[in-house]
Amino acid sequence: MSSRDLLVETMSQLLWERGYADTSPRDVRQRSGVGQGSMYHHFPTKRDLALAALERNVADALPATSDLDGPGDPLARIEAYLTRERDALKGCKVGRMTQDPQVREDPVLLAPVARAFAQTHASWTSVLREAIAAGQLQDGLDPERLARTLMSVIQGGYVLAIAQQDPAPFEQACAGAIDLLHAAAPSTTIPRRP
Length: 194
Known about the structure:
By secondary structure, the protein is mainly alpha-helical. The chain has one domain: Tetracycline Repressor, domain 2. It has nine helices and no strands. The longest helix has 27 residues, at 107-133.
């Protein structure tokens, strides 16, 4: 791994663990083992390094969302996405950044975060439209609003799990979202989980 990639990977992890405000260039150098000269050769400022790391975190997070865009039964894809394995106690690599005041106040640093959520919203909206068109969900549902709700369930589930230091609230939130989707079926077309 090149020194540049090592710096980005290290900053990526530190942003997830500590946030931008609580991560110093020295922290990155100490954990990565990359010298100061090399660091500043690749990234003149902490902000430059953070931007590269945020882009990496977005790139890491978005492939999971592409599962919503895949082929096959739309409701099955939604359920698979909601039940896929996650480390709920670590939270979301991207969502974590919205809690950092220095990221929120910097349009350049916030841009990749906002873009990731916009892409995620688009994927959710698309799969929900498919489920409505397939008769799996009621016609009157607003896929855009429902997409925001499901995104909020996931992000809120992370917050609850971290606050309680227990993954159960995250898992229960996702299971509750699935229950609500089943309740939004137009008839008994979707078998209920036991």
